[in-house]
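Minutes, project check-in
Item: structure for the 213-residue chain
Input as provided by the requester:
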Amino acid sequence: MPYQTLKRANVGAVILGAGFGRRFGSDKRLAALGNTTVAEQTIKRFSAVFAHLKVVLKTEDTALGQLLGQQAEIVYTDQSYLGMGHSLAAGFTDLNWQWAFVGLLDMPFLQPTSLEQIAMRALSTKYQIIRPVFTQNPSSAAVEPSVTTTIKSPQGHPIGIHSSLFGQVRKSGGDQGAKWLLKANANIVDNIPVSDAGIFMDIDQPKDLLQQP
């Protein structure tokens, strides 16, 4: 099973959930989605694939931390107001995995089969960064590894980062997240074609809850 294989290979996921979601109008992480919430749905999908799982939250998110703490290690940061890069750096503090896949807590529509496909790539790739790229026909897609400047298809999450780059990630800041890391290491990015629109469907406004693929 992918779960046990990834556990033995020390592959995990860091989920960023310390944003403020001002465009949503309320806490989108706790917005109802089916019989659960956006945050719980996202974590449920990741925890089914990854045995090692961290979630980055704001220091005041103690109630949400208790809710998600049964399935993941919770990391609190008091610097999230400075931008996603600071949350990313906090999630990689003292991280000793071989690979870490960075996901977002407001992306509950990522399909489990896609998540498994992306995560399992860590066991065979010769590159140090793994990134899913949306395409209608993955089997016939001509998306070559390490080609980043010519990709026009939507790129998404989770993004896999090898431990050799963890030191760079810990220097992240501002609101760019891992974008700067991808740009600086464009020659070592393995782009995986997937047909799952869930890799880029985040929740910004209440209407986004109705757009499940």
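Outcome recorded: The first strand starts at residue 11 and ends at 16.
No further action items on this chain.
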